[in-house]
């Protein structure tokens, strides 16, 4: 599974990458330190299915463009591109508004809290396969 | 009495008779900045351009009365103080003047110069006081808002690196990449959790103070069981008992009521006696169409008598325990109860336990929609 990480914190990017690899969930990680880097990557590879991430782990509070603004951009891609990607929000925020907005967003599968717990991530991924 | 150090007082005088305007101007032009107009239309024009302090209007004018005129400007120009000059007044006009024109003073025609002057100065003082008060309220609201927003965003900003630390500790444990025979990593994790608990309380305090009260149906059995599920994994040694007698539909604010339960239960969990073999938390709820009476009883360490009236104060921490709290939890409980019109009382015996009793009003009567 190709997993893209979007987070402005270098430490959190490193952490998530390491944890996911260690847990055996995936070895194919695309790490982006900003929402616009991520969008650039998707734009560049929009026609290369095997390069596009199947899952995006998305931070919410980031400078320049936050997680929800990123989602608004993502939804503008052709369905063929945006529909094959699942988004899980990964945040340290306990803001009720963030939770509500994540719940309401059609692209977001779930919001999970930092620090990343790979068992929890695996559970969410399992539930995705069932759907 | 003339107040010192003020701006020049700007007066708008509206009267259809030119002689009256001229007489007024002649008497006061050295003291005040005076604008005289003969019609409501001109008056509006002046009010748009000049910041007027006091408006004087004659009651009897051909197209509209003074009271009517005041009624028309009230919404757009609420600040100037309004004085009505009238030769006679019937009770009808008087009522209308007070209710729809919000008149500051009536003056009899023909006016007495001394009386009018005093009235103008008093009106101006009143204008200044109102303006000052408005400014103060605005500033207070602004600083209050900024302060809570500051606390809120700071709490969030603090949390994010804290979660990184926790992640790194987790990773180090997972990789076994750090030689740590003395368990320092665990101590780091414990400290981080403690700090995080504090930050979460501060955030909860903010959310509690900002959250609007929304009344929804509550089935206490299901509601409290849901909350208890969160606590059970934290401490397996505690025996929970929930007793619910709900004889009527109950409406209340989910958020605030959950905040109250969560804080009281988490205290009951935290302040157990370690030597107690059957640690116990009993929750009983009796809800009827008027109110819900809830008691939360533990057999923990108890609260010192002299502390009982202080535990709801912000940042108060009891001294009979080494388990230091944040001093915020019970303050939030009290605050939440204030918001939903509830009350709380507490009884405690040292080394035997504590009983909190809460009363929350049922809002089902006020709601238009019925619970299903």
TrEMBL record, chain B:
The GO terms this record gives for MF are: phosphorelay sensor kinase activity
Q: If you read the UniProt record, what top EC class would you report for this enzyme, in one word? A: transferase
Catalyzed chemical reaction(s)? ATP + protein L-histidine = ADP + protein N-phospho-L-histidine
The EC number of this protein is 2.7.13.3
Where 4-aspartylphosphate occurs along the chain?
Answer: 58
Q: Which UniProt keywords apply?
A: Coiled coil, Kinase, Phosphoprotein, Transferase, Two-component regulatory system
Question: Where would I find the Response regulatory domain in this sequence?
Answer: 10-124
Q: Does the keyword Phosphoprotein apply?
A: yes
Q: Where does the record place a coiled coil? A: 123-150
Q: Where is the Histidine kinase domain?
A: 153-364
**Which top-level group of life is the source organism from?**
Bacteria
Which SMART domains has this protein been placed in?
A: HATPase_c, HisKA, REC
Q: Does the keyword ATP-binding apply?
A: no
PANTHER family, sorted: SENSOR HISTIDINE KINASE RCSC, TWO-COMPONENT HISTIDINE KINASE
The name of this protein is: histidine kinase
- This chain's source organism reads Solitalea agri
């Amino acid at each position: 599974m190709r997993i893209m990480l979007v987070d402005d914190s270098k430490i959190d990017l490193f952490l998530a990458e390491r944890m996911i690899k260690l847990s055996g969930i995936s070895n194919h990680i695309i790490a982006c330190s900003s929402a616009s880097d991520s969008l650039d990557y998707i734009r560049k590879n929009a026609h290369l299915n095997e390069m596009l991430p199947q899952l995006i782990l998305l931070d919410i509070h980031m400078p320049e463009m936050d997680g929800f603004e990123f989602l608004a951009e993502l939804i503008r891609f052709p369905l063929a591109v945006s529909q094959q990607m699942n988004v899980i929000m990964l945040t340290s925020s306990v803001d009720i508004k963030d939770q509500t907005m994540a719940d309401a967003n059609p692209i977001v599968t779930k919001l999970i809290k930092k620090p990343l717990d790979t068992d929890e991530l695996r559970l969410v991924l399992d539930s995705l396969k069932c759907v | 009495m003339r107040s010192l150090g003020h701006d020049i007082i700007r007066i708008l005088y509206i009267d259809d008779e030119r002689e009256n305007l001229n007489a007024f101007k002649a008497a006061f032009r050295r003291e005040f900045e005076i604008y005289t107009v003969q019609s409501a239309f001109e008056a509006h024009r002046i009010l748009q351009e000049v910041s007027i302090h006091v408006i004087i209007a004659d009651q009897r004018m051909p197209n509209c009365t003074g009271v009517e005129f005041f009624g028309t400007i009230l919404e757009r120009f609420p600040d100037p103080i309004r004085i009505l000059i009238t030769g006679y007044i019937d009770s009808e006009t008087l009522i209308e003047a007070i209710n729809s024109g919000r008149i500051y003073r009536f003056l009899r025609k023909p006016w007495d110069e001394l009386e009018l002057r005093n009235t103008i100065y008093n009106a101006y003082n009143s204008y200044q006081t109102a303006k000052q008060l408005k400014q103060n309220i605005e500033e207070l609201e602004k600083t209050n808002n900024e302060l809570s927003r500051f606390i809120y965003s700071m709490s969030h900003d603090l949390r994010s690196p804290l979660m990184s630390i926790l992640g790194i500790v987790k990773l180090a444990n997972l990789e076994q990449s750090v030689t740590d025979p003395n368990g320092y990593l665990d101590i780091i994790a414990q400290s981080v959790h403690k700090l995080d608990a504090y930050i979460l309380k501060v955030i909860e305090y903010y959310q509690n103070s900002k959250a609007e009260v929304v009344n929804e149906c509550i089935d206490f059995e299901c509601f409290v069981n849901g909350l208890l599920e969160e606590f059970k994994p934290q401490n397996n040694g505690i025996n929970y008992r929930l007793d619910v007698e709900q004889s009527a539909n109950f409406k209340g604010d989910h958020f605030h009521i959950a905040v109250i339960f969560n804080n009281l239960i988490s205290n009951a969990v935290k302040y157990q006696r370690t030597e107690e073999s059957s640690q116990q938390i009993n929750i009983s709820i009796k809800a009827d169409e008027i109110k819900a009476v809830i008691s939360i009883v533990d057999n923990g360490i108890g609260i010192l008598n002299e502390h009982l009236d202080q535990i709801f104060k912000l940042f108060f921490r009891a001294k009979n325990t080494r388990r230091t709290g944040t001093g915020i939890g019970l303050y939030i409980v009290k605050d939440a109860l204030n918001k939903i019109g509830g009350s709380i009382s507490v009884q405690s015996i040292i080394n035997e336990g504590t009983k909190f009793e809460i009363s929350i009003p049922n809002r089902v009567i006020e709601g238009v929609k019925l619970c299903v």
